[in-house]
Write a structure and sequence with these properties.
Rossmann fold; 48% helix; 14% strand; alpha/beta; seven-stranded mixed β-sheet; 272 residues; globular
């Protein structure tokens, strides 16, 4: 029997992983007993309209740790400054060290076409590291990998210069409670900053027991277009009847710069 897979998420901000791939991460933990590690490359200290950056930095690390605990995963925020992430050689070397040290079977990250410069930077860093993790003379203080992991670009709806290709799609309705529980840990974001940004701060319930229901409705509205965008792939994966009925999904593109999903690898890493 093969060992459970190892899954590494390289996101730009605390809460990116849950928003874009929380259903898949829940599946990996609950169904495959995978070792999952989530990393936000930035400290998240820019994401608020009132709280100080120092306060927010500390709060968001605690929120991330709490979110990881929902599925039994390690969740770390690096110390790189929020909204100032760049695809530098120094940052690339750090990403290479992390991939080599953790030795993942799958790396999840952002695409390089995205509205947020931090998201684009993480995607570029991961893409640029994907071959170099196998080169011994690059970052020689950490032993190289002999093969690349599979890199999956997380769900997004952007279309320029190219839309996400849904190589893999997942119905996440069964995991929705877990996703909401993870997102709810990011209190400074979903109940404060994002609500403020969208002009709906006055709609957030004050009573904690009402907030989960509110968050579930908000999130389902946020991701509703995914199922419409990736409907053909959902039908091809789940069949006509179920594929047309799915309302909550995640979609992933396999990076052409890293390992590919042949039949054996797919059986191990994508049995869903």
């Amino acid at each position: 029997m093969s060992e459970p897979p190892r899954i590494l998420v390289l996101g730009a901000h605390p809460d990116d992983a849950e928003y874009h791939a929380g259903g898949l991460l829940t599946c990996y933990r609950k169904e495959l007993d995978a070792t999952v590690k989530l990393i936000s490359l930035t400290d998240g200290a820019a994401g608020h309209h009132k709280r100080s950056s120092e306060e927010l930095k500390a709060l968001r690390q605690k929120e991330s740790a709490d979110a990881g605990a929902v599925i039994g995963a390690e969740y770390l925020n690096w110390d790189l400054p929020d909204a100032h992430l760049e695809p530098t050689i120094k940052n690339r070397d750090r990403v290479i060290r992390e991939i080599r040290s953790f030795r993942p079977d799958v790396v999840l990250t952002h695409r390089t076409c995205d509205y947020h410069p931090d998201h684009r930077a993480v995607g570029q860093l991961t893409q640029d590291a994907s071959y170099l993790v196998t080169v011994p003379k690059v970052v020689p203080d950490v032993p190289p990998l002999f093969k690349n992991p599979v890199i999956l670009y997380m769900t997004d709806l952007f279309t320029r210069p190219a839309p996400l290709r849904p190589d893999l799609v997942l119905d996440v309705e069964p995991q929705l409670d877990s996703v909401i529980d993870m997102l709810a840990c990011h209190r400074t974001q979903v109940f404060e900053w994002l609500a403020y940004e969208q002009g709906i701060l006055d709609q957030v319930p004050q009573k904690p027991e009402q907030r989960l229901a509110w968050l579930r409705t908000w999130f389902q509205n946020e991701i509703a277009e995914r199922a419409n965008r990736f409907r053909e792939a959902l039908i091809a994966t789940y069949g006509e009847e179920k594929g047309r009925a799915i309302t909550c999904c995640e979609a992933f593109e396999v990076s052409e710069y890293a390992a590919q999903l042949d039949d054996d690898i797919r059986t191990k890493l994508w049995p869903f």
